[in-house]
Amino acid sequence: MRVLHLSWEFPPRIIGGIAAHVFDLSRAQTRRWVETHVVTCNFPGAREYENIDGVNVDRSEAYATGDSFLGWVLRMQKNLEEKACDLISFINGIDVIHAHDWIAGVAGIGLKHLYRKPLIVTMHSTEFGRRIGLHNDFQTCIHEIEGWLCFEAWRVITCSHFMRDHVAWCFNIPHNKICVVPNGVDVTKFYFGFNYWDVRNRFANGSEKILLFVGRLVPEKGLDVLIKALPRVLGNGVPAKIVAVGEGPQKDEFQRLADNFGLHGKVHFAGHLDDWTLRALYRVADVAVVPSRFEPFGIVALEGMAAHCPLVVSAVGGLNEIVDHDGTGLKVPPNNSEALAGAITRIIKDPGFKDWIVNNAYQKCLWNYNWDKIAEWTKGVYDAALHEYHNGTWKPT
Amino acid sequence: MRALMLTWEYPPKRLGNVSDHVCTLAHELVKRGNEVEVVTVDDWRPGFEDVSGVHVHKVANPVKTHPMASMLTSDMTASTQIERKASDVIYFLRQNGKNIDIIHTHEWLTVPPAIILKHAFKIPFVLTLHSIEGHRCHNNFGPKSIAIKEIEDRGIWESARIIANTEWLKNEILRYHGRGHWHKIDVVWPIGDGWVDGVVSVYKRALGKT
Asked: Is A10 in the B-facing interface, judged by CB distances under 8 Å?
């Protein structure tokens, strides 16, 4: 079986989470006897063609001009589509087209009809969810493109049951067209030798407990809820410190909020960190907190689980499905600082409980969120679509 | 000769002169024993019509909201629908053992689908430029005009032949897009008896049949 992935980002071009997802998924697929091709945007220093662990990566010109981000995206997709046409002629056909999000999906719609092959779409997120409603024409336009993409897809893949319902509701797509395949995590990446105190001392002093927040600094991710919980945690006698990894437009606002609470020096904005430091930080942190208000999946929770870092998450979206309360972590209602503070305190004050949830969480990672299984499940989605395709009348004769 | 005509407007939709130009050309080509499939965008009249032998396929833009009323984004989403309909036409013809010989696209708006169809089906295309962005924006190249000029440029590079309506326009195209393209541009006056024969001879040149 031959699959063509369309993605606007692929390492070394990393903008959001899709790059890592396509990277891990496509490499796992090659291990399951799927011939995998990725068509993506070019990047300074990256080759136009390369083979990474069996994955064939073709990069097309991305720096097309446009009158807006939207105009750029749509023009860039024409370049992706053209590159994919040349690739398909060169390798003499493809079996399945797999597009990731609207930002590469329009190219997938074109290719579906040009070659009459089934289109599979992974909806990593939705504009409606990201913006919590649609507030201007840019967002409405993207929303309509996403709806068109789901309409054209033979199967839509979402990463959680929450997203399955959300996509079905958002675009009026029947549930039987949507399959849930979770994201994965490679646990081996988290186990390497490093000096515990060297890493820890970079972010906190010896007695401080590190509350790790990883995410873009936007309201959707809820760092403000965590900052508001910190005085209560300190009041419970836990010498905690927030380490916030990530950048975003609300950074100044969150910084001001922390200062207004008198938490200067207790909230550390670490900015972007390299993979190695971040993984080490997961291992030295005392609690990983994910206080999101909207979360399609919550890859941060998986990373915490893989690194044996106890989790406190808000019970929204995909997080609600990843974490079992009292089993693999603690769940609190979203937007509730008191409950968040209580949960953080409980984990830090009860090491036995912490060990219990951390071990359960690690086992769940190995069992549910490993890429080999995900590649297998994804292949099942392809097989279902191909079965319909081969028994239908749309296939060219 | 079987031609696939791509245009962003076709009667009864008339926003510019391309509409009637393409309609007349299509009918005259059919009268002379050619076959013409027209694929066009019309949000209000999607569907198929056979008008005196001219097959007209109209598609509607699937995305209705476009920020800043952007012609660019609406054209890009409509392009994908044009590709879909053109592919359907090509697969339908194939079932009957027929093929499209040449694609004829008018103006920058249908250049993106023409390029994609060329790469997917290996059918060369002829591009008629009725005007150019440099004139339309009076040389005030904002982000949108830069993008449109770039699309025109891609069309000029990817097309097999280019038709300019006048000698003057040919020179203007060369002035804006480089004189290296001089050998690719044919001047065909869209007036009188010589027009349709002139277009057919450009098709033949594009196919290397002269």
From this structure: no
Q: How far apart are CA A86 and CA B86, in angstroms?
A: 18
Which run of H or of E encompasses A397?
Answer: none
Other C-beta atoms closer than 10 Å to the C-beta of A214 total 23
**CA–CA gap between residue B153 and residue B20 (Å, rounded):** 25
Tally of CA atoms within 13 A in the half-sphere of B38 that contains its CB: 32
DSSP string, A303-350: HHHHTT--EEEES-TTHHHHPPBTTTBEEE-TT-HHHHHHHHHHHHH-
- Is some CB atom of chain B closer than 8 A to the CB atom of A135? no
A-B contacts (CB, under 8 Å): 108
Chain B residue numbers with beta carbons less than 8 Å from the beta carbon of A113 are: 83-84, 87-88
Give me the sheet containing A178-180, strands edge to edge: A49-52, A55-60, A35-41, A2-6, A96-100, A119-122, A155-158, A178-180
Which value, to the nearest 10 degrees, does the dihedral of the CA atoms of residues B158, B160, B164, B167 take? 110
Q: Tell me how crowded residue A148 is: count the other CB atoms within 10 A of its CB.
A: 21
Q: Which residue in A has a C-alpha nearest to residue B83's C-alpha?
A: A110
For residue B67, list chain A residues with Cβ-Cβ distance below 8 A.
68, 70, 136-138, 141
- Residue A330's contacts (CB-CB under 8 Å, 6 or more residues apart) are A310, A311, A312, A313, A323, A343, A346, A347, A357
Q: Does residue B105 belong to the interface with chain A, where contact is any CB pair within 8 Å?
A: no
Collect all residues with Cβ–Cβ distance below 8 Å to B55 and sequence separation of at least 6: B35, B36, B37, B38, B48, B49, B89
Q: Is the pLDDT of residue A63 over 90?
A: no
CA-to-CA distance for A361 and A84, rounded, in angstroms? 40
Instruction: Give yes or no for a contact between A106 and A76, defined as CB atoms under 8 angstroms apart.
Output: no
Indicate the angle between helix axes A351-368 and A299-306, nearest 10 degrees: 110
Q: Do strands B102-106 and B125-129 pair parallel, antiparallel, or not at all (unpaired)?
A: parallel
Query: What are A316-348's pLDDT values in tens digits?
Result: 999 999 999 999 999 999 999 999 999 999 999
Q: Tell me the per-residue pLDDT of A284-296, one tens digit each, with 9 for 90 and over.
A: 999 999 999 988 8
Q: How far apart are CA A56 and CA A27, in angstroms?
A: 10
Chain B residues in contact with A114 (beta carbon < 8 A): 83, 87, 116-117, 120-121
* Position B199, amino acid: V
Flag whether residue A71 sits within 8 Å of chain B, measured between CB atoms: yes
Interface-testing mutation among A90, A115, A139, A141, with chain B (most B C-beta atoms within 10 A): A141
A189 C-beta neighbours (distance < 10 Å), count:
13
Q: Determine the pLDDT at residue A212.
A: 97
Q: Which residues in chain A have their CB less than 8 angstroms from residue B76's CB? A: 71, 74-75, 77-78, 106
Distances (CA, A) of B70 to A89, A382, B63, B116: 33, 36, 12, 22
Judge: A71–B150 Cβ closer than 8 Å, yes or no.
Answer: no
Of A88, A141, A396, the CB nearest to B67: A141
pLDDT tens digit string along B36-58? 999 999 999 999 999 999 999 99
Contact B67 A81 (CB under 8 A): no
| B201: Cβ contacts below 8 Å, ≥ 6 apart | B210
Using DSSP, state whether B7 is helix, strand or coil. Answer: strand
Test mutation, A70, A72, A131, A395, chain B, max B CBs within 10 A:
A70
- Within chain A, what is the greatest distance between any pair of CA atoms? 73
Cβ atoms of B8 and B40 within 8 Å: the answer is yes
